[in-house]
Amino acid sequence: MWVYVKDLKKHIGQEVELKGWVWRSRSSGKIAFINLRDGTGIVQVVVEASSVSTDTFQNAKKLRMESSLIVKGTVKEEARAPGGVEIHAKEVIPLQIPKEDFPINKPDHSIEYLMDHRHLWLRSRRQMHILNIRDAVLKGIRKFYWENGFIQIDTPIFTGAIGESAGNLFEIDYFDYGKVYLAQTGQLYLEAACMALGKVYNLGPTFRAEKSKTRRHLIEFWMNEAEVAFYEHEDNLKLQENLVSYIVKFVLENAAEHLHALKRDISKLEKIEPPFPRITYTEAVKLLQKKGFNIQWGDDFGGDEETEIAKQFEKPVFVTHYPRKAKAFYMQPDPENPDVVLCDDLIAPEGYGEIIGASQRIHDYNLLIERLKEFNLPIDAYDWYLDLRKFGSVPHSGFGLGVERTIAWIAGLEHIREAIPFPRTLYRIHP
Amino acid sequence: MWVYVKDLKKHIGQEVELKGWVWRSRSSGKIAFINLRDGTGIVQVVVEASSVSTDTFQNAKKLRMESSLIVKGTVKEEARAPGGVEIHAKEVIPLQIPKEDFPINKPDHSIEYLMDHRHLWLRSRRQMHILNIRDAVLKGIRKFYWENGFIQIDTPIFTGAIGESAGNLFEIDYFDYGKVYLAQTGQLYLEAACMALGKVYNLGPTFRAEKSKTRRHLIEFWMNEAEVAFYEHEDNLKLQENLVSYIVKFVLENAAEHLHALKRDISKLEKIEPPFPRITYTEAVKLLQKKGFNIQWGDDFGGDEETEIAKQFEKPVFVTHYPRKAKAFYMQPDPENPDVVLCDDLIAPEGYGEIIGASQRIHDYNLLIERLKEFNLPIDAYDWYLDLRKFGSVPHSGFGLGVERTIAWIAGLEHIREAIPFPRTLYRIHP
Ligand SMILES: [Mg+2]
Ligand SMILES: [Mg+2]
């Protein structure tokens, strides 16, 4: 019976069949050891010359790194083994033994080399742990929305030239229609959908033709956006801190072994629970000035500023009430000070930077027209978006969470490129 | 306390606040009725002149379709009402009353008109039911993979020119790199990932620059692909019939009210359980010839052929063992007849067409090289894909499920364009 490594503990004393690859192997005289991986874990297979056929023992000795094989044997309890079990082999059947050394076999390959071999690098333990954490983060996001009555609305990738910043868009020739663009956000569509369904979210790939080459940027990344009718700024902040806390808790409960394997300091993640600290943009500027940053009210924050702000807190921190002119046209002004808007950036601890951008949206038709003009945006292109303010407009709020940045923070990765299976950066679309 | 319509039954006798939009309203003399929708349901609000202020009663009479409003009132049990409750209003607070008639207010708008107003059309009951069914289908897909030990691997959208059919690709200028293409499939990447993680799946948008204008085609659609190391043709068929049966059951259990509202014949869906019938391509050709179709062995099936085959069965039917030359280069030949391959198309009942394309993949390096040559494909572009056959190659299989086609079938939709929130077709990318 074919059993996965992760399930071996349920089969102690039984004869099973394992299918996988050689992680490491060694032999000496009358005994061979194969560390077999199958994607769910690694188990040690013991092959004793005295208890198998000559063929099987010869097969076991021939194996090399990443040979594929089938092993038949008995599951034995073994307290000293990592998974608590080992396999006493009866039969070892090689499927394919590589003719060359496996390309990823040294501890000091350059990052360029590793990325060139991403299709094979995925088999390393570190990458398997990261991908399992990614899987848990994505599950956590979904479960949060499922439990909170949100409907998934998949927003389109092909769009006209509307969105946040028309600058960094990828263009496509669309049949006889002319140019279309790859969406940088589904927000405007989610705004339409939340007027139909109340609470909606998306989760999918996003594209930014930005010539940034930092450890926090990808050209193709995943984003989760949510939008809720009748939510105002305060509701929006609570939703975000609940979501982020839920994700972290979910990963701690479901992927702790992978965090441990990456030597992530779990105690830092265990502190992540609502409420999150909040400071206004204006307070943040004062704080940065006091720390010696050359920054003026009205400037946007870069990575260094975000890191300095985050350092003051053990949890993610909301920076709220940015200057209207530094943010997108659709943000609702603060009724107490129309120079700032009801928005927030959520900055992760430990220097991982902004993981959420959020705001209450303008719901007044005339104010929105005024802002489109102030930002020199083509009013015609926003025809349907303006309709939402003509037919039963209501206050509403939402946000976008960067999935890879969230993964990088939770897993404790130095660079975001490891947080996605096949990263696309400025100079890389292969493999 | 703000309560959603779907939760009203838990608040019978209590005073609540509802936030939403006017679905329909009418008044006569001393009484007004407002059907309020909030995205989770519709409830009747009764406003009696004798029990509210003059302002509130005047407000209630002023309301028109899609006005946004807040209602405060008491929840009363009312067996004759659709949700079993109605609201006796204390206060009616209009938020925004449209100056124009709501654009979607007649039963006979043309499909072009409705699609031009998709951002508002989403508020119609029919579209809300469909989007709830879509949400349930997507949840069902995920839960299946979660329960069966699969890891989500998000495959890239930006890719080099490799994939199934280089014909229908959208092109992008990628910085100094040159042309890149929007992926039509993540299969090749999933093949790499399944060698690392065993069982993997994706679920995301896919793009096909195909000038098809049928009720089964979208330019941008969602696809779910899965790939499993060590799975052969037979395992692959079982995985597919289990997945599809799971999705249907999940929707029946979690979205039955929405199926009923669309008048879907539930009894047809209740029959969907494993095993699914199977016929070979060769048998299907004979069947079609007997029915008078002008088709020869070697031809591919179109929509009409698929519908005729599907008519013979009450469940989805697997058509297996297609001619090698009619399918993609990477399919494993049948050991008993190398002119056909170990593949299947799963054809939905009731004329909904192909919802899955699947195959066992070639795992032998030399055979794969031979096929690349036979199909005139550039071997260089497949360098990393070929690596998978050099380092621990194993038999493996997978498939791709068309999400919108699956939704169209389950919801009983005539056209696939209603199965996605913002459809992109040959002539439409707006709104
Ligand atoms: Mg920022
Ligand atoms: Mg077909």
UniProtKB/TrEMBL annotation, chains A, B:
<keyword id="KW-0067">ATP-binding</keyword>
<dbReference type="InterPro" id="IPR006195">
    <property type="entry name" value="aa-tRNA-synth_II"/>
</dbReference>
<dbReference type="GO" id="GO:0003676">
    <property type="term" value="F:nucleic acid binding"/>
</dbReference>
<dbReference type="GO" id="GO:0004816">
    <property type="term" value="F:asparagine-tRNA ligase activity"/>
</dbReference>
<dbReference type="Pfam" id="PF01336">
    <property type="entry name" value="tRNA_anti-codon"/>
</dbReference>
<dbReference type="GO" id="GO:0005737">
    <property type="term" value="C:cytoplasm"/>
</dbReference>
<comment type="similarity">
    <text>Belongs to the class-II aminoacyl-tRNA synthetase family.</text>
</comment>
<dbReference type="GO" id="GO:0005524">
    <property type="term" value="F:ATP binding"/>
</dbReference>
<dbReference type="InterPro" id="IPR004365">
    <property type="entry name" value="NA-bd_OB_tRNA"/>
</dbReference>
<feature type="domain" description="Aminoacyl-transfer RNA synthetases class-II family profile">
    <location>
        <begin position="133"/>
        <end position="421"/>
    </location>
</feature>
<dbReference type="InterPro" id="IPR045864">
    <property type="entry name" value="aa-tRNA-synth_II/BPL/LPL"/>
</dbReference>
<dbReference type="GO" id="GO:0006421">
    <property type="term" value="P:asparaginyl-tRNA aminoacylation"/>
</dbReference>
<protein>
    <recommendedName>
        <fullName>Asparagine--tRNA ligase</fullName>
        <ecNumber>6.1.1.22</ecNumber>
    </recommendedName>
</protein>
<keyword id="KW-0648">Protein biosynthesis</keyword>
<keyword id="KW-0436">Ligase</keyword>
<dbReference type="InterPro" id="IPR004522">
    <property type="entry name" value="Asn-tRNA-ligase"/>
</dbReference>
<dbReference type="InterPro" id="IPR004364">
    <property type="entry name" value="Aa-tRNA-synt_II"/>
</dbReference>
<dbReference type="InterPro" id="IPR002312">
    <property type="entry name" value="Asp/Asn-tRNA-synth_IIb"/>
</dbReference>
<keyword id="KW-0963">Cytoplasm</keyword>
<keyword id="KW-0547">Nucleotide-binding</keyword>
<dbReference type="Pfam" id="PF00152">
    <property type="entry name" value="tRNA-synt_2"/>
</dbReference>
<comment type="subunit">
    <text>Homodimer.</text>
</comment>
<keyword id="KW-0030">Aminoacyl-tRNA synthetase</keyword>
<dbReference type="InterPro" id="IPR012340">
    <property type="entry name" value="NA-bd_OB-fold"/>
</dbReference>
